[in-house]
Design goal:
Helix content: 55-70%
Strand content: under 5%
Oligomer: single chain
Largest sheet: 2 strands, antiparallel
Shape: elongated
């Protein structure tokens, strides 16, 4: 049984992507614009380096700290100003209201997640392993930062351009990882968007159950989110694949 992953600190050091499966390589020409949109630079040797962010200020950092401590309800512009060491009116010069501030926090987190996704994909040995590791990393993040997870994937009362762009960029990267696995014949033919929705629906449902104490390897469901992800990916693999063979041998 797959043990629940431990928390990752998401340090992004320089790394060289491994060959996925001839003739595919990550990053490839189609994925390069998506990867660069997350503030990642691709070196001439194929290595990945994080580009230092210069536009995030202490207000977002303080809001993120409050979010982790008490969830969205604990984030107020006055409390953010206090933690950041600013006047109580300072946050209003940057954000219209609390929802605008939370949207900026969510957008920043999604871009960090996109960078983490690209780093995971760069280290994978093959497209199916890339997809599996991508989903496991998503679980690690959500279990470590449940308030961030539920903020980003919860209900929003109004559309925010920056948040929408960040969300769409991470979604495209996820769908692209499915497309690469499918084009290599490692998962059954089908619609990449629907497969992405299927995987994300199971993953988010399992995360919610685990966070609320209704799913555990030694309790309800006799599994954790990563176990269920592995089960679904094995089911998506072609009938003659090693993944299906491993499943039949269980």
């Amino acid at each position: 049984m797959h043990p629940l992953p431990t928390a990752s600190d998401y340090r992004h050091e320089r790394m060289t992507p491994g060959l996925l499966h001839p003739p595919f390589r990550w990053p490839n020409a189609r994925s390069m614009p998506m990867i660069r949109s997350f503030g990642i630079d691709i070196g001439s040797d194929g290595g990945i380096e994080m580009v230092m962010a210069t536009t995030r200020d202490s207000i977002l950092s303080a809001a993120g700290e409050l979010l982790d401590q008490a969830g969205p309800d604990g984030v107020t512009l006055r409390a953010v100003a206090h933690i950041a060491g600013l006047s109580h009116n300072a946050p209003y010069k940057h954000f219209q209201d609390k929802e605008a501030l939370l949207a900026a926090v969510a957008a920043k987190e999604l871009r960090t997640r996109g960078a983490a996704m690209a780093a995971v994909l760069a280290k994978a040995a093959d497209p199916l392993s890339a997809l599996r590791r991508l989903m496991h990393d998503h679980v690690r993040w959500a279990m470590r930062y449940p308030h961030r997870f539920r903020l980003i994937f919860g209900r929003w009362d109004r559309y925010d351009d920056d948040l929408g762009e960040a969300a769409e960029a991470t979604r495209r990267l996820f769908v692209e990882s499915i497309a690469v696995a499918r084009s290599n014949g490692l998962i059954e033919p089908g619609d990449n968007e629907r497969t992405a929705a299927l995987l994300m629906s199971l993953t988010h449902g399992a995360i919610d159950l685990a966070l609320d104490g209704h799913l555990a390897a030694d309790g309800k469901g006799r599994s954790n989110p990563c176990d269920l992800i592995d089960d679904l990916i094995d089911l998506l693999a072609p009938a003659i694949s090693p993944a299906r063979a491993r499943r039949r041998s269980r």
